[in-house]
Design a protein that fits this description.
This protein is of the alpha/beta class. It contains twelve helices and twelve strands. Strand 2, helix 2 and strand 3 form a beta-alpha-beta unit. The longest helix has 15 residues.
Length: 344
Amino acid sequence: MKTTWIFVGVLAGLALMAGTAPHQAWAQDYKGKTVTLGYGGGVGGGFDTYAQMLAPHFKRHLPGNPTVIVQGVPGAGTLAAANYTYEVAPADGTFIGIASGNTATAKLFKTPNIRFDPSKFVWIGSMTSEVAATIAWHTTGVTSIEDIKKRKFIVGGGGATSGNVIAPTVMNRMFGTQFDIIRGYASSREAMLAVERGELDGVASWNYSSIKAAHSDMLRDGKIKILLQLSLSKHPDLPNVPLITDLAKTAEEKSILELIFAPQEMGRPLFAPPKTPANVASVLRRAFDATMADPVFLAEAEKRKIDLNSPMTGEQVTALIGRMHEQPEAVVEKTIELTNTGTK
């Protein structure tokens, strides 16, 4: 399936169209309609891979078997996709955003340049609970996070809400690591190409599912060393690799890390624009749930070595976001200070 791109220059025109999108009863029957899955990140990256795999199966579970296409919304990690879905996309069930779990805490953490309130999105579900990994290229000689406390370690990053910017920033400030973050990479895949060229030492946060899907040979051949798991629970494949929460020395540090990395539990969420009618939201949610349980879909994921680790329903995602926003103000303020990526 060919991926197309939505360019920022057309957003103004599309915004005019979005305001007149119909919310009629056809939402119960998608026959003859086109549904767009608009993902953040770059072509060939993890979000592209998941969206491309989801599309043909998701359409079979939507009433009327509509056309489902995949489009990239590039820029600022997956932030642009969230802004686009919130501000521009039609709220009639024909556009679904796919972004990182960090979308859920972007407003809570006062992330610059966000123009959305995550509590107002209609959350459709999440394809997988992600375990991000900090990886080092084999020629660096780095074998643990402790090594990065002793030397500069150059990594590639995306936008302000990208895990590959937030995670190393937090580790530098909390634990004294020496990550040197070079921003401007559209995806972790692009950053990994720079690692292979010798421009970077590694990637500070890269979803393990993407590594398995696209670079299982590097794991097999020992080209990359996984140093740390950036999540609240270990991936079954990585029982001996420490969690970032293992680095915490105090209860407050652990609470902060849990708030930062809780979004990994909803690693690749789907969401519809605000004001999406309740009946439309129900159709989308149940179609997503059916897809996640579809034997044909699951068989394809297994064949392609794509992780579907603990998918979540839209209701579960909404509840998780609610819990994250109930943290004590002192913990939230300290977390904001640590995750502010606008300064070194």
